[in-house]
Design a protein that fits this description.
The chain is mainly α and 203 residues long. The chain has helices at 15-25, 30-43, 47-51, 55-62, 69-85, 93-97, 104-113, 124-134, 143-158, 163-176.
């Protein structure tokens, strides 16, 4: 809890806010995303408003983050949700994944944080922490290692009822300690159990 990072999308977790935040967070630092997220949801309060938005207007808000394709993506996803699901995120995993532009990580984030379904959404940060702890090859670049990471994630979720906090805790741990470059191993509280720390090769 001492390392918990406060972000506005971690509160009042509606389907709209979770999905928009996850799109903006793709390959983008969370601290940079927060002011853009706040401005975007102040202009567009839900999927119906965003579905009818002008692409250039959305782009003008998010352009400082790069990856400009996300303006059109946000509008397209909003249109699909309005047309197929009446402007509300569906609670079924199959339905969420049927939304073009929504992959496994965003779907799992929605199911976990909006519908309270036991999931640990796995992105590169979660994969890095799990891989280092158990000594899996990282970056994860084959199906076998990916399955092993998923199995460990399921074990994490199976021993807690606080899987939403677990997700944020691992993300924050990855950002503040278990960084891609120069992880801060010497002050890590779980280093004695970490395969990465306890092997000589830390490349």
């Amino acid at each position: 809890e001492d390392n918990y990072r406060e972000f506005s999308w971690r509160h009042d977790k509606t389907g709209f806010k979770v999905l928009v935040s996850e799109i903006l967070l793709q390959q983008t630092n969370a601290e940079r995303v927060e002011p853009v997220f706040e401005e975007l949801i102040s202009q567009y309060s839900g999927f119906e408003q965003l579905a009818s938005a002008d692409k250039d207007a959305v782009l003008s808000i998010i352009k400082t983050l790069g990856l400009h394709y996300r303006a059109e993506l946000l509008i397209n996803i909003s249109n699909q949700i309005c047309e197929k699901y009446g402007g509300e995120i569906p609670s079924s995993e199959e339905d969420v994944l049927n939304i073009k532009g929504v992959g496994n990580y965003i779907a799992d984030s929605i199911l976990c944080h909006v519908f309270d379904i036991p999931k640990l959404p796995i992105d590169t940060n979660i994969s890095r922490v799990i891989s280092r702890l158990w000594g899996f090859n990282y970056p994860v670049n084959n199906a076998k290692i990916e399955r092993m990471v998923k199995e460990q994630a399921k074990k994490f979720v199976s021993v807690t009822s606080h899987y939403q906090k677990l997700h944020y805790a691992i993300l924050d741990f990855a950002a503040l300690h278990c960084k891609f470059y120069n992880p801060i191993c010497n002050s890590c509280d779980i280093r004695d159990s970490c395969h990465y720390y306890n092997t000589s090769d830390k490349s």
